[in-house]
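check this one:
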Amino acid sequence: IFQFLKQLGIHPDWQFVDVYGMEPELLSMVPRPVCAVLLLFPITEKYETFRTEEEERIKAKGQDVKSSVYFMKQTINNACGTIGLIHAIANNRDKMNFETNSSLKKFLEDSLSMTPEERAKYLETYEAIRVTHESSAHEGQTEAPSIDEKVDLHFIALVNVGGHLYELDGRKPFPINHGETSDDSFLEDAIEVCKKFMERDPEELRFNAIALSAA
């Protein structure tokens, strides 16, 4: 992932670090502040059933999503790692230092006014990010993009926008608001959301969380 971020023109003052476990003493090892968490998890029948029910429930009840949340749909099959990264960076773009000619910075600036569907279409045509994604996946230097090739595993991003914790998943029709959070409690709050994913599939072991932390 480090290589991937560097190729996209992001200064290394933020880094992705593994979250080795969900217990407080293991979370205390993660450098703070944390501005996003990526969760890698298996798409199982249980999860798909839950996803359908969740979508119907939110459509019926409604939810509050701030207009400043950057969300994009996923139309490229094996790009959930890339889209997870874009979601993590895009919703923290004010904290990031981009190189002047950063391909990701240009992509975000161009796509800010677009709908989630238009952003997905734009990514399909945006060579710089797609090529970076493919080359880093082939080199195998970075865990995230190459994991995408196993289609039964999927990435989502958890971010704090305006004091609310949002789950961003390009396979879903909209962001999911998981309630209030703060800069101080964000990692713990995000891990609580990750635990719910694990509790829904207790026989599954293929869960992995990565935090975007200050270097």
Observations:
- The chain is about 40% helix and 20% strand.
- Confidence is low (pLDDT under 50) at residues 138-150.
